[in-house]
Amino acid sequence: MLELFVxxxxxxxxxxxxxxxxxxxxxxxxxxxxxxxxxxxxFETFFDxxxxxxxxxxxxxxxxxxxxxxYKTLIEFIWxxxxxxxxxxxxxxxxxxxxxxxxxNVDMTGVVPAELNKVTSIGDKYMIEGDLYAxxxxxxxxxxxxxxxxxxxxxxxDVVASFPDANTMNxxxxxxxxxxxxxxDQAAFVSLETAQEFLGDGDVITYINIQIxxxxxxxxxxxxxxxxxxxxESWRTMFPQFEESxxxxxxxxxxxxxxxxxxxxxxxxxxxxxxxxxxxxEVGMLMAMGxxxxxxxxxxxxxxxxxxxxxxxxGTAFGYLVSAYFNSLQYTVxxxxxxxxxxxxxxxxxxxxxxxxxxALILSMIAxxxxxxxxxxxxxxxxxxx
Length: 386
Description:
By secondary structure, the chain is of the alpha+beta class. It has 2 domains: 2-51 and 242-385, no CATH class; 55-238, no CATH class. It has 15 helices and 12 strands. β6 (158-162) and β7 form a beta hairpin. α1 crosses α12 and α2 runs antiparallel to α10. The radius of gyration is 32 Å and the shape is elongated.
């Protein structure tokens, strides 16, 4: 094929310009791959942290009812739904906690520690003193560190829980947690049985937290439970701004990265334009030998495409290696409110490796359109004169 032969000849004979063009596109693609891997890792980390405290599905009582009464039967139904990974019943109420002269209202929630931990990971990752599982035995309470500060109470000391129409009881502080979320860090957890005894309304709960293997199936699971008459909401309806903000950030970041690649690709346009000026006589000779304008255009388009594709392949390979290296470092940052370091992840999406290589090819060919058109419009007689 004449066009490919001539294009490859130009590439081989102009090594310095070829290296610069391929290097510019390759560096742009490598930067994109690294930043995309950082974005992917950041989003996964955000989702992990978000779902360590937020359920995928929240089930509330039927309309007009204060409690979920037959919750054990409902839990059996929920477990029968494919994809359900954890189910945590809870009884939430307002209580007044007092210690010596300090008195504070608190959201006190009765839970089954083992089940709560499967949904929120609070017992594994957010306890800074004591043990969440300790609340299961007797009248014990786990308090957020903000509530500990307000009450000025310490581990092992008793706080008095009271509220109108509730049963006053002493609770031993058996654990302290810190999530970095102010609302949570002013809360209290007791066992489900303790909360039921405190309220005195029998074997009831106020809501159920559900964890699903695939969070994006939450809407379907919520709809199936809602069909029974319960108020079931997925995380996507409870926190729509979370997904919307991530989608906007993804779009804006991708737009910036594509612009970086576009700028690098037009470096190829400059190289190709210079090539047309240098190869004017050669173009004239090809035309004199019978090469038509379409073939001339294809020569320069093929050359720009080869440079773009080579840069794309080099860039994706280099970007992948850099991302893999950074990910292996397991670099961590300490957020002021986080109870533990956050690992910075670099996760390469295989789709990105293919997509950005092809995008480099397409943009480079677009950038080569004008130089190719310019070359095809040369007058053979003028071109032979140089």
